[in-house]
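Human
Can I borrow your eye for a moment on a structure tokenisation matter? Give me a protein, with the fold worked out from its sequence. Write it directly below this note and I will take it from there.

Assistant
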Amino acid sequence: MQAHEIEYQIFGEEMQYVEIELDPQEIVVAEAGSFMMMGNHIVMQTIFGDGSEQQNSGLFGKLLNAGKRVLTGESLFMTAFLNQGQTKSKVSFASPYPGKILPIDLTQFQGKFICQKSSFLCAAKGVSVGIEFSQKLGRGLFGGEGFIMQKIEGDGMAFVHSGGTMAKKELAPGEVLKVDTGCIIGFTKDVDYDIEFIGGIKNSLFGGEGLFYATLKGPGTVYIQSLPFSRLADRIIASAPKSGGKNREEGSLLDGLGNLLDGDNRF
């Protein structure tokens, strides 16, 4: 496998985008909906799956590989951006929600990186985006990501996005890191990933942190996000006006006072 060599630059702090510079005839593939802007000589085309070289095995092979993406919650199709000009040109892709973009050089991770579903943003042509089945029952049933995670394979550059602030942890052999199941961005292929029950009746019923957390055992590199999109969505839904147009403070003693203190003085 030989992926296209691409140059890139990441802009922004909380709402980042990645700008990729393509030489003539170079291609980058991206998830549908991540496109931001591109130069005049770049053209885009919808393709089955990720367009990696191993999918050149006929129509059935392409359909099979593309169909696997449905299991990770992705579309059957991706978008390829080709520089048809005679000079270098740029194309940019944006994060779908506040957070950080993580560049992954697969040559530094032994050709494979495992990440949560829906985190893939874009990659050089030749990088394979597939599925990673869990062989452990506990991880599959209670891991928050089901039996399946995404795997990115190849020898090129790939980009994934995360929510909030990103933390990188280097685990020594045998070292264990316990993490909220939704806060994992991804990890290298040598990391052993499993699920552990929190334990204790009070913790389970009143702790507010769920019943399980993930255990990540080294050696390897782990990336953690501080604000998973599911947690952000839950907070937004909880704060949204309920039926009748009332928010969660209305009808309480803190209704008017709370709005004055937080600057919400809408009529």
Observations:
- The chain has five helices and 19 strands.
- Helices lie at 59-68, 137-142, 201-206, 229-239, 255-261.
- Residues 229-239 form the longest helix (11 residues).
- The longest strand covers residues 42-48.
